[in-house]
Each structure stands twice: as structure tokens, then as C-alpha cells.
User: What shape does this take?
Amino acid sequence: MTAKIKEITTQEFDDIVLRGDNVVVDFYSTECPPCEALASKYDALSQIYGDDVTFVKIFRQGNRELAQKLGVTSSPTILFYKKGRILEKRFSGAVKRKDVNRVLDSLLPMEKQGELQLRIQPRTTECDVAVLGGGPAGLTAGIYLAQAQARVMVIDPALPGGYISTTHMVSNYPGFPKAQNGYMLAHYFHRQAQEAGVEFRSAVDVEAVDLENKTMVIDGVETIKAKRLIIATGSSPRPLGLKGEQEYRGNGISYCSTCDAKYYKDRHVIVIGGGNSAVEEALYIARFASKITIIHQFAEFQANKTAIARLKKLGSVEYYLEHEPREFIRHGHMDMEVVAEDLANGVRKSLRAAGVFVFVGFIPNLGFVKNSFKKDQAGYLLTGEDMQTSVPGIFAAGDIRSKQYRQITTAVADGTIAALSIIRELG
Assistant: This one.
């Protein structure tokens, strides 16, 4: 089966999209990792739905006025039309196949949906090494393995780069005299891996992992079977587990300053935490916010002294040390309340701001596996010096591994060691 996609321009938009029946439109860019991650899924879906839905691609930069008119500000962005009317649902960034699939089904009658599902052909792809996770550890491992002529596949539910993609500036990665934007550093990692020959399955749903047979099912259609497996899934921001946190996550409560600080220009925000990430992120937020209130459970910050000194020079920051949040309450559209408790006397007070940022550490991303591995008390994977876990043939690298320090440089070192260990095993 071949892809059924039309590349069009602004001049063709009215005839093909607005006068069409069922149409899906992909606004894409070149040199765009999220667009690359979407391309194979878009092609595959066009093979299934292409007789009933018109699949269209539009180069966003070459059709800028049309994109702006439609509110398309990032690549890729997918829009859906039915008889010339744009649907409310749209996707951008790390687009998942199942999400697009669901909207495509909604355009068609129920009986047609069932008929098209029969066209989906499951497939199996074999490789030497499958790497779960596309952060610095996984990408480094991929580079070493691909350069050793191994067939390696990096599989990630998100986009290549990992957590550094959301980090504002990285100033301590060797080789760059000046601080680097985290997104660009992640982009360099990804491009180098591509040049080495690493294959990617990005923004996918990992639906099943069989550790014993080293297989995983992604997007419900492809089974990846490997000789060796590297787990480099990293860690995620630790939630506080307080009342109101889950309810207002992404709607008043954020865990990423690079993603959301720009929405609080000239407004007051609250930052919870006092370690390196909290202080560094607060410094970035200060570029936008008019005032920052920091809530920290200890009497002193646990961040590096340079960052603390920079923070204390800011005149727009107030501190509630030896305090802990107890509840989040939302008032109206842009007004959050944090109920904070003074740990010295138990007195609670209400602090209000436009938004809240939480930076209180991380937890390992291991939700896709059961209790097959030996772990430390915090749930991180235990490995030997060769990065091999307690499960034969499975290695771990990066922030998912039990260790004292978690930095980009330590993740890169782990990925290197895991790859070299596997290269030696595979001969």
C-alpha cells in the first residue's frame, strides 16, 4: 500500500479543503523533529483512510498567511474538516497516532470504521538493540551502537531530547563555551543520532513490553523485537499529591517554566521547592513574572550557591522558608490560592497568585513494567558497572538508574557504557 497524500498551497486550499467532504490537513515545517515523528504515522493512516478522507500537507512557512489565519502557530499542526467546516479538535507537537485515528473515525459512519480497521496490518520489526527513551542517555547509546553497525531503534512516547528539551538554558555541558538553549542541545543530540543511522519511533504509545522476549508493541500495530534492550526512560517531575493538584494541573499548576512562564508576563506566581531545579527555574520565570513567591520546607535552599546568589539579587522575590503547601484552590480564570503551613507553629496562611510552579524533585518513569527488576528504595533501577540490570540482556542508563548524581553528563556516560557493553556482548 502507498501513501495517499496531497501536497497543496494556499491557492488550492479552498477547492480541496473547504469544498471537500472529509479532509485532514497537516501543517508541517522542514528541520522539524515533531514533523518527522508524525510523517510515518500520517502516511500509514492515509493508506487506511485515504479512500474516504482526503489527506493534505501544507508547508507552513511557505503558506504563512493561511497558517496565521487558521491560528496555526507551531509545526506540526493537524486540522480536521467535514464538508468545509473546521472541527474544534486539533493536534500539534508530539502527535499520537491513536488521537488522529479517533478523530478520523468520527468523520465516518460506524460500519465504515469497522471496515477500515480490517485494513490495519500488524507488523514485526527486528533489530539488534531497542532503546526505550530518547533523552541524552538513550540517544548517546544509539549513536555508539549505530556507529558500531548495529541496527538500533529509539522508542519514545514523547519526542527526542527528553527533559532537557524543556530546560531553558544548559551551562555545564562540555563543548559549549556559552550556555545552550535546552531545546537546541536536544536537537543536536537527535540530529547526530540520525546521522549515525539510528531509527526512531517517536510520540508513540508503548502498549505492551515483554521483558523476557525483549519485545514491545507500539501504537497497536508494530511489534519491535530486539536482541538487547536499554531502558532510558528517565524521570518525571514529582507531584505533591495535594488536594487540587491533579484538578488544576496544566490549568493553573505547572511543572515546566520553559513551557508556561511566558503566560505569566507581569503577573505574580508561586514557586514550590528549593533545590537546584526550583531555583534555576525561578530565575527563568523572573524574566516574565512581576513577582515570585517561593515556598520551601527547609530553612535554607539546597541549590548551588551561584544560583542562590543570583536569586537573592532579584528584588521581586519573597520567601516562605520552613513552610509547606497543603492545598490548591482556584478562583476564576487566572487566580490560584495556595494554603501553606508554617512548620514551626502549624499556622496556615493563604497565598494567592496567577499561577503555581512545582519543582520538588523527580520520580522514575517505570510505569510500563512490573516488578521484574531490582530497584533501590526510591524505585530506581539497580545496575552493575556495565549498566546491566537484574534482568539478563536488559540495560539501564540515565536518570532511571540508581545513582548519586543525575546530570546530562552522567546520563551520557551511562548511555556510552551500556552501548559498549552490548557491543562487546553482540560481538
